[in-house]
Structures are given as structure tokens and as C-alpha cells.
Design brief:
The protein is mostly helical and 171 residues long. The protein is built from six helices and three strands. The chain folds into two domains: 107 residues, no CATH class; 33 residues, no CATH class. Helix content is 63%, strand content 6%. Strands 1-3-2 form a three-stranded mixed β-sheet. Helix 1 runs antiparallel to helix 2 and helix 3 packs antiparallel against helix 4. The two termini are 30 Å apart.
């Protein structure tokens, strides 16, 4: 079971990932190939993010931090240019909407991905849910003298009315 909102954040990042094509010079093939490569790499990371990979979650948090730093840098450049030369930066004017949208999503993702359901550090988000269900539903009995993994629960022999529950034994 994927966490609620994982699909929505993936779609939002996929749409904003296309913002890399805003304002590039289409006549320069090298720039177009580089931007297309970065966008395709972004979609590969988004696929693994949607699958619940922890490394992809960490990469998304890293790039979310970069989007906020990018917006702050654009604001500083704008203020410096306006104060010193009384002009506006064409780069900032062309990319402001994309930068603000990316920074807003980045700030939300930094909050949302650091919530408790993601902070387990497991390789797969489904693994964290499985571990929590394992802790709730199965009794773990540690014993070195049992050879098998499944055996009768030792408490069931002490209670004559018990149904003989199974316990997971870790050698």
C-alpha cells in the first residue's frame, strides 16, 4: 500500500519536470539534448519514487532543496540588478513562474517526505508497512534451542485452554 498522496506528488513533479524546456534556445542542439537528458533522467527517478524507493525519496528531497535555493538565487539576482542598474533580468522574467512553482512544490515535499511514515529509512515504503504489521500481528519468540522457524508457542503448553498458537522463532 502506497502512502496517500504519493501519486499526486509524482504527477505534480512529472508536470513541473517539463518546465526544464521553458526558455531554452531551441536552435542550439547541445542545450536541447542536455535538457532532454536531464528531463528523462528526472522521469526515471520519478518512476522509482513512485515505486517507493528510499534513494529516490532522498534524491527528491535533495532536488527540492535545490529548487528553493534556485528561487532565492533568482530573487537575489533580481534585486541586485534592479538596485544597481535599474533593469530586470530576462532570465528571471522567463523562468519566474516555473521557479516559483518548483520551489512551492519543493517546500511541500520537504515537509511531506520528512513525516513519520517516510522516515523509517527502509529501502521500500511497502517494507515499512510490512514491518509494522509484523510487529502488531505476529509474536516473536527468540530461542536458540529451536531448530525450525515455526513451532508451537511455549505459552500454549502452560495454558490448557489455549488453541496452540504459532509463533515465529528466530534462532
Amino acid at each position: 500500500m502506497k502512502p496517500r498522496g504519493l501519486g499526486a506528488t509524482t504527477v505534480a513533479m512529472a508536470v513541473l519536470n517539463l518546465g526544464g524546456f521553458v526558455g531554452i534556445e531551441w536552435t542550439r542542439r547541445g542545450v536541447v539534448v542536455m535538457v532532454a537528458s536531464v528531463v528523462l533522467l528526472g522521469y526515471a527517478v520519478l518512476w522509482y519514487y513512485w515505486q517507493g524507493r528510499n534513494w529516490a525519496r532522498q534524491f527528491v528531497m535533495f532536488t527540492s532543496t535545490l529548487t528553493i535555493v534556485n528561487l532565492l538565487a533568482m530573487l537575489v539576482i533580481s534585486v541586485v540588478l534592479f538596485v544597481t542598474r535599474r533593469e530586470y533580468s530576462p532570465y528571471v522574467l522567463n523562468h519566474a513562474a516555473v521557479a516559483v512553482a518548483n520551489a512551492a512544490l519543493g517546500a511541500f515535499l520537504l515537509y511531506w517526505l520528512n513525516k513519520r511514515m517516510f522516515a523509517s529509512g527502509s529501502e521500500n515504503l511497502n517494507q515499512a508497512k510490512y514491518c509494522s504489521e509484523l510487529r502488531k500481528g505476529i509474536r516473536l519468540s527468540v530461542g536458540t534451542h529451536h531448530a525450525g522457524l515455526l513451532a508451537r508457542n511455549p505459552e500454549s503448553t502452560q495454558n490448557p485452554g489455549s488453541q496452540g498458537q504459532l509463533a515465529l522463532l528466530i534462532p
